[in-house]
Structures are given as structure tokens and as C-alpha cells.
Design a protein that fits this description.
The complex is a heterotrimer of chains A (93), B (310) and C (99).
Chain A: H1 2-18, H2 20-25, H3 29-54, H4 58-68, H5 72-77
Chain B: H1 3-22, H2 26-46, H3 50-74, H4 87-109, H5 119-124, H6 126-129, H7 134-142, H8 144-162, H9 184-207, H10 215-231, H11 243-266, H12 278-302
Helix pairs in contact in B: 1-2, 2-3, 3-10, 3-12, 7-8, 8-11, 8-12, 9-10, 10-12, 11-12
Chain C: H1 2-28, H2 32-54, H3 61-95
Helix pairs in contact in C: 1-2, 2-3
The chains are: A mainly alpha (93), B mainly alpha (310), C mainly alpha (99).
Chain lengths: 93, 310, 99
């Protein structure tokens, strides 16, 4: 069982790692952000798998923090001050 | 566990890091940086350094990404070519980085024999302090002075950011953090998540005494929740002249200092605690520090004042 | 015990399948919004099945409860992030219809 869980964690790392190709190809910032999003969720799942396999329950807390902050990068992407500048550096019309 | 997954993880970290440095667009680089942080957090999990993994997950996933993306939004637009440094600078930076990397590699590959470590002694005296997490024991008992200075540096950083305030806005509120367009989904998240997040943040601080966790992780989570509320436009950033705000900023370091000087009378000297009261003192100091860290990080992301005081 | 382990393997396996589908979709789908659709599948079903599979393996009740909280947080975060990324795409398109 333990080997299965470690194996699943390793496979999941490879899968979400492949998603990094989308971060490099883009083309839109949203595409890149999606790769980060997938890695955040996948990372949480990997942490849970390792926590169960190793019996170190403290690792669940890492998944907890990752899940809590999972949406933050996406929220930050939409940041911008109305009337001054847009995030891509173009002046607001 | 075989070596293959570890190699894959290292390869992923290197790929993401190189891409982050090489990419031209500032915002793309920040996204790459967030990804590197997530991967590093997994690497720390693999190394069984749960405390560090927690910090990386909280800081890398929440605070730094926000801080950098906000900085991107404020920067004056410039074509990518004009910000490239001189080729000589390139080469010099590359050389320095290679020297540091080679030095670190040398230390890892050729460790001192026998390895100089205080770990057994540190672990042997843990019982006296009544704490169960060796990392917290080192941070708040053995190396308390380093931790104190670290928190003072955070206050100095905030003062540094505030000094960028234009004269006419001094004492006013930082620019709003609201998103470009109002979004019902974001508002819902900002109403549902903070109650849960505050509980998790307090849990991390409290849990830090005996298990992985602690002030910085907990404080960062609290700051992230505050920032979420500000980004969803449910609250504006406070004016930087507010006394309550300034008191909260210095609360942690002041409590730490008071506990440190009290050591002259109740124990053996600066920053030493009497064994019977070590745990309560450390928990109180940690609580005050977490609160200060939350306020400081939140105000660091909010930035210098951009509106005249009302 | 064997039955519990088989349940875990089946559920975690199902979760892995949805993560695979999410990754393939993220890499192969032709435009941003379709890729977003693939991503949210991985977030919802993939993560959900893995948590479901790990629940019977948790050593104590507190850890099990934490697993459920993590799952709920991921649901909330994934749903919000999906909305925000889609809105962001819409905003960029309106600003630059050629993209």
C-alpha cells in the first residue's frame, strides 16, 4: 500500500510537471497561470499522498496551506488600479 | 523510494527556474516564480523539512506572488529591450552566481569530517523548555537573538516602503488593491475564506510549539486573508498614520524585547527564560509576533500611501 | 483490510486518471477557455477522488477531518480561480480583440 501511494505521488508529480510546458508555451498570461494552478492542486494532492504513505500527519498541514492559498495567484492576476495602469503595463484609456 | 522521482523534481525546479530568469515579460516571470516556489515546497516535503515546506507554501504561494504582481501593476511600462543590462554586467552576474553555486555544491559534496553538529545537545535540552518542535526551540530559545533581529528587519522594511510616500500623501492610505473589474466570485471567496483562514493561521501559530508550524507561517496566512478582503474591495487599506496600526506593527518586536530584557531579572541574562515559564513566555511572544507579521506583510503588499489623509 | 486497500487503490487511480485528463487537456486543447475547462476537471474530480481514496487510510479522526477540509478548500479555490481566469481572458480580449 505504501509503495502504491509513493508511486502515485511520483506519477502525479510527472503529470503536473508536464503541465509546465503550458507555462512556457503560453501564449496568454491566463494559460501560464493555469499551469501554476494545476501545480498548486497537484502539489496539494502529492502532499496528501506522501503524508498518508509516510505517516507524518504534519504534511497534511502543507496541503491545507496550499489549498487555502490556491486561488491567490489567480486573484493577483486580476489586480490593477482603475484609472492608472493596467497589469500588462498599458495605460488605461 | 527510488532516485527517479527526486531527479524528476530537481529537473522540474531547474527548468522552471531557468525559464523564470530567461522570460522577457515581467508578469510571466512572476508566474514562473510562483511555480518555482510550489516545486520548492514539494522538495522540502521530500527532505522531511516540514517547517520549511510550510513557510515556502505560505510565502511562495500567497505573499510573494501577490507582492510581485502588485509591483508589476505599478511599474511604468517599458519595452523589454531597454531594461536589459550591459553584457559585462550579464557576465559578472553569471560568474558570481556560478561561484556561489559551486561553493554550495562543494560543501554538499565534501562535508566536513566528522560533521560539526549541535543537534544532539539541542535535542537533549528540549525537555527543559516544555516545547516539542525542535525548530521552534532553536528559533525562540537557542537562537532567539537572530529571530528578534529578523522581525526588526521586517519593521525596517515597512518603514522603507513608507518613506517612498510622496510628501502630500504622508499619513494617508495606500492605493486600493481592488481588482480591475468587480467580480461576484471574488467577493464570495473573500467572505467565505477568511473565517477558515484565520482559524488555520491561529492553528499554525499555536501548533508551532510542538509540531511543524509557527509564527511566520501563521502570520503569512493571516496577512493573506486580510489582503483577500482588500482585493475583493470589501475593505480599503488603512491610513498609515493610524496609531492602532503602528502599535500593531511594533507589538511583536516590543513584546520580544521586553521578554528578552526581563531575562536579566528572572533568568540568566538577555533573552533567557526561567525553565518553569519558558513555554508560556514563548507562546505569548509568538502570538504577538504573528500579529505583527500579519500586519507588516499586509501593509508591505499595500505599498506606500497614495492618497492624502482624510 | 484488503477491501479497504482495494477501495483506496481504485479511488486514487481514478483521481490520477482525471489529473492525466486535465494535463492532456491543458496541453492539447486549442484555446484558452477549453484548456480552463480541462484544468477544472483535474481540480475537482482528480483531487476529490484522491482525498476519497485516502480517507479510509487516515490514522486518526483529526487527520481525516483535515483531509475533508483540504478538499472543501480546493473546491472553493478551484471554482473561484476558474471564474477569475475566465473573466481575465474576457477582459484581455475586449482590450485587444485580435488576441
Amino acid at each position: 500500500m505504501i509503495d502504491f501511494l509513493y508511486g502515485a505521488a511520483a506519477l502525479l508529480l510527472l503529470l503536473t510537471g508536464l503541465g509546465l510546458a503550458r507555462m512556457m508555451w503560453g501564449p496568454a498570461p491566463a494559460d501560464r497561470m493555469m499551469a501554476a494552478q494545476l501545480l498548486g492542486t497537484g502539489g496539494g494532492a502529492i502532499a496528501l499522498l506522501i503524508a498518508t504513505a509516510s505517516g507524518i500527519t504534519a504534511i497534511i498541514d502543507i496541503a491545507l496551506v496550499l489549498a487555502l492559498l490556491a486561488a491567490f495567484a489567480a486573484v493577483a492576476l486580476t489586480l490593477g488600479e482603475p484609472g492608472t495602469k493596467q497589469p500588462d503595463g498599458q495605460a488605461n484609456p | 523510494m527510488t532516485l527517479l522521482p527526486d531527479l524528476a523534481l530537481v529537473l522540474l525546479i531547474l527548468t522552471a527556474a531557468v525559464w523564470t530568469v530567461a522570460v522577457r515579460d515581467r508578469r510571466d516571470a512572476v508566474i514562473g516564480f510562483i511555480v518555482v516556489g510550489l516545486l520548492l515546497s514539494l522538495a522540502w516535503v521530500r527532505l522531511n523539512a516540514v517547517d520549511v515546506a510550510l513557510t515556502e507554501a505560505a510565502i511562495g504561494g500567497g505573499a510573494t506572488g501577490l507582492l510581485l504582481l502588485r509591483a508589476c501593476a505599478r511599474l511604468v511600462p517599458r519595452p523589454a529591450e531597454s531594461v536589459l543590462p550591459h553584457p559585462a554586467m550579464w557576465i559578472l552576474t553569471g560568474l558570481l552566481c556560478s561561484v556561489i553555486a559551486a561553493g554550495l555544491a562543494a560543501i554538499v559534496v565534501m562535508p566536513v569530517e566528522p560533521p560539526a553538529t549541535l543537534a544532539p545537545e539541542a535535542a537533549a535540552n528540549m525537555g527543559e523548555l516544555g516545547l516539542g518542535n525542535p525548530v521552534t526551540v532553536v528559533l525562540l530559545a537557542y537562537r532567539a537573538l537572530d529571530t528578534l533581529l529578523e522581525k526588526v528587519v521586517l519593521v525596517l522594511a515597512l518603514i522603507g516602503v513608507w518613506t517612498l510616500t510622496p510628501e502630500q500623501f504622508w499619513g494617508g492610505a495606500p492605493a486600493s488593491l481592488r481588482a480591475q473589474q468587480s467580480s461576484g466570485a471574488l467577493r464570495l471567496l473573500a467572505q467565505v475564506l477568511p473565517p477558515v483562514g484565520v482559524v488555520i493561521g491561529v492553528y499554525l501559530v499555536w501548533n508551532g510549539a510542538d509540531h511543524p508550524g509557527g509564527t511566520f507561517q501563521g502570520g503569512t496566512v493571516l496577512a493573506a486573508m486580510w489582503l483577500l478582503v482588500m482585493m475583493a474591495d470589501l475593505r480599503e487599506p488603512p491610513e498609515i498614520r493610524l496609531h492602532t496600526l503602528r502599535l500593531l506593527v511594533i507589538l511583536g518586536p516590543v513584546v520580544f524585547l521586553v521578554a528578552g530584557f526581563a531575562g536579566f531579572w528572572i533568568a540568566n541574562g538577555f533573552l533567557s527564560y526561567p525553565p518553569a515559564f519558558a513555554k508560556p513566555i514563548i507562546v505569548i511572544v509568538e502570538a504577538a509576533l504573528a500579529l505583527s507579521i500579519a500586519v507588516i506583510l499586509g501593509m508591505l503588499v499595500a505599498g506606500p500611501a497614495a492618497r492624502a489623509p482624510r | 483490510m484488503i477491501l479497504v486497500d482495494m477501495f483506496t487503490m481504485a479511488a486514487v487511480g481514478a483521481g490520477m486518471f482525471f489529473f492525466l485528463a486535465g494535463t492532456v487537456g491543458l496541453l492539447r486543447f486549442p484555446d484558452t477557455l477549453s484548456r480552463l475547462h480541462a484544468l477544472t476537471k483535474a481540480d475537482n474530480l482528480g483531487f476529490g477522488f484522491i482525498v476519497l481514496g485516502l480517507l479510509p487510510q487516515s490514522p486518526d479522526v483529526l487527520s481525516g477531518l483535515k483531509l475533508v477540509v483540504v478538499w472543501l478548500l480546493v473546491q472553493l479555490a478551484a471554482a473561484t480561480a476558474g471564474q477569475l481566469i475566465a473573466q481575465f481572458v474576457g477582459l484581455e480580449r475586449r482590450r485587444d480583440p485580435a488576441a
